Structures are given as C-alpha cells and as structure tokens.
Amino acid sequence: MKILTPKQKIVLQAIKKFFSENGRMPTIRELKDENAKLGLKFKSLRSVFLYLNALEEKGFIKRVSRDRGIELKDQTKKNFVDVPVLGMANAGTPTFFAKQNIDGFLKVSRAILHNREVFAIRVFGDSMNLAEINGKKIKEDDLILVDSQTKDFKNGDLVLTVIDGLATVKIFKQISKKMIGLFPQSTNKRHQPIYLTPDDDFIINGKVIDVLSV
Question: How far is the C-alpha of 208 from the C-alpha of 52, rounded, in Å?
Fold first, then answer.
C-alpha cells in the first residue's frame, strides 16, 4: 500500500467510523457529512468521489457496483462478518412469507456480533415503531439482526417468529405453561397481540439484537 495524505487519512477514518457506528458503509452524502464532523469539509460530492478513487488506487478500499459500494481491503475478513439477508418479516400481522433463500449479504463489524450466529431480515409495517433495540427505534424497511442461537426466551425479548410460514416481529411474553403472547409496541392502536399454544404451527427463529437503519 502507498502512503496516504493527511486528508486521505481523514476520509478513510470517516469510512471506518461510520461503519463501526452504523454496521453499514456510508453513502457518498453520508460520507461527506461524516468527514465534516472530522473537520474535513467538501464543497461537492464530486470531491468525495475523487478521494475514494485515490483510496482505491492506493489499495485501501475497493469500490463495487452496488448501493453503499465501499469495501475496506485487508481488514475486511479480520474485522467484519458477512451476514446473510434472509428475506423479510412484517412488524404487524404476519403477512409476508419467510424466505430461506439468501437475498444478499451485509458486512457487519465483529464488535457488534460478539461471535453470535446472526442473520438479517428486512422489516415492514409499524407495529413495532415504539420498540427500541440498543436505543434505536425499528422503522419500516430497516434491517434487523437476529441471533439464531438464542433458544431460551425471556419476557420482553424482541423475537422473530414464523407462524404458518409467515414471519413477524413482536415482543415475547410467557402467558402460561401452554401459551405465549407476541405483543406489538406501536403508535398504531389497530395492532393486537398474537396468542399461541404448542398446538399451533409456529417457530421462534431467534432474538433481535440490533437494528440497522437504511
């Protein structure tokens, strides 16, 4: 690798900082704003592109043809995990089929995952718009990270549940030995709890551990 100029170092630092805090790479506009926080203000988005080109030429990043198409070279395998995106779930009544085929991958910091087996799923609906994970609200079209290893669920856990082949995100509560409840947390009062017994066709896929806004 070649030596970076002071400004190029700031841009690289901004990329790493944004990824560490958000679990995803920045857009060009987000990178422009992140650099401004670090004291490097760009007049145009074109200037950001020029610095990204320089970082790529010097071997510090790789540009790929997709949204948020920045990859950190060399450190990627060491610091990041490819998390599969397994379709979508509804934060309302379970109206979308849960898909097992992989729609793509997210690069997520190992610091976020803590060696847990995690997959991501996109959220639709507003039945959980008052729920918080790590201080972040769950908005429609956000990606949630689900820990598939968690099997012992506690009251208040936010869980991904597939009911009759349909996926939904709700708050878990053990009602009795033979009944659980899945509860919404929403500003929309039309959403109602879902009550399940062992005789019902459902499986709790895991506990939601983080939210990645898009």
Answer: 34
